[in-house]
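In keeping with the milestone schedule agreed at the kick-off meeting, the structural modelling team has produced records for the first pair of proteins. Each record is given below as a sequence line and a structure-token line. The laboratory manager (R.T.) confirmed that both were archived under the project's standard naming scheme.
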Amino acid sequence: MADRSVTIDTPAKINLFLKILGKRPDGYHEIYSLVQTVDLYDTLTISDTTGGTELISAATTVPLDSSNIIWKAVELLRRQTGFTQGIRVNLTKRIPVGAGLGGGSSDAAATLKGVTQLLDLNLSRQQLQQLGATLGSDVPFFFSTGSAIISGRGEMVEEVKIASDYNVLLVVPDFAISTADAYGRVKINLTNSSPKPTFIREKISAELLPLLDQIGNDFEGLVTDGHPAVASCMQFLREAGARVVALSGSGSAFFGLFERTPDPSLATMISGRFGWQVFSLCPVKLA
């Protein structure tokens, strides 16, 4: 029986815009994206045990072995600090997998934070952020305040203050998209590079939403060309009053931003018409 435990609710993210600026010499793509955390959470309960690393979850969508990024985060900390205690992570998975919502990266960041807190490891937030970058490009973002411009391959994080008085209707189709596959295919649609947008910080929602609508997500055409139902549902959101409709990450999830809380019947209509998951969400801050 574990003597101590730490429980962390860790959120999903959406990309309010995402531009691909070109291909880097190291094979990665240079990106520029405004990212925001939303109130859809995975929950991790991290306990110390007698030995080894153990991952438990009722979810059937994630591996429970050393290929999981949570497991990798534990072992990375073990190598970095030399702790010998066993670690058990119990994962309650609510963030859909393969949807561009950063669930795995969020879980990895929460694991680094939780194990550090549980074992009182002498590592700063900056050190954990740097370790997180070795696990995945999105992981460092989840050490921010929840609103940030990410650049480079995603590991460079600049916190920003932006409006949060809008509502998010998130749609998750019944198919997943591999981020690696999406980046491998998006080069077909890139000639040289996408222009870097001019983004002025601290905008109120009346200024922010029209700007986001202009910038968009460079993966959108790739997804809508391959999945016409996504394009149809995006148009449905626009007709329902969404000020912004955009893809999150490389998909498959997409969202509409509304100035007011959308009528619950809208989510019911989308779910009934397309058979997809729909979440009514709000932006949240990270501690």
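The second protein of the pair:
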Amino acid sequence: MPIKIKQGFKTHLIDISIADLFFTKIITPQMRQGRKYAQVLSSIREVGLIEQPVVAPLKKNGGYLLLDGHLRIVALKELGIESVTCLISTDDEAYTYNKYINRLSAIQEHRMIMKAVQSGVSEEKIANALNVDVRTIRNKRYLLEGICEQAIELLKDKPVPEPVFRALKKMKAPRQIVVAMLMNDQNKFTSSYAKALLGATNEDQLVDNGKPKKVSPMILARQARLEEESLALSKEIDSLKNQYGTEIVDVTALQAFIKKIIGNNTVAKYLQKFHEPIYDKFKEISELDIFRLRDIA
């Protein structure tokens, strides 16, 4: 028999007076003075409300409980707007909206800005909508110039700050790919790490910027050591990834077998009587959380 799944939202939007909305959290004066609120206010002023607030109807006294969109509603009030189109939730919990948020990566931001510009939206209008300087939009627009497609693909959904791309632009394409792979393998996307890898890059792998810099033998040795350590660590991580799944299966099977042994009363009593240390160790293994073995010395 098929399971009936309850709908999370009504299939239609409705217009609601802002006066009929009841907040589920307090918007403090400090929050209204923050950057996030300024961006929301500027965006609504420039392009209107993009994402509809989510509400749930109150059964007793009428009105609606505001589950998501508090800053948007405060901004609408400030702009003198008295009603808003809302999405109606069939549940009155607000946890989901605040918990499951996907942050945009720098590459995703770049692609959204490029799409807006190609659609005829000016840089100035985008900057006004986001409440940022137009130079910020231009930097994001040209973020990937000089970055090869393979490196972009490796970093497209990673939390990479803009200074990392500036470091990558100083490298040739093959080196960009290697650096992107190293950052992925170690899950490390900081600008300081990118600068360290840039410093460890050979002259022939850098984009030509005029006269080559004089590098002391000590710096060359340090660069070579950093490169070797990074590559060795990447290989070790790959090896661990390959082994981890098989080892967990083996350990889980072993634990299940031991549980079966000490679950037999006759065997358990025999071990307790004649081999108490073994019984204690078996009992300890049977109670282990396999996925927290790293915490055990």
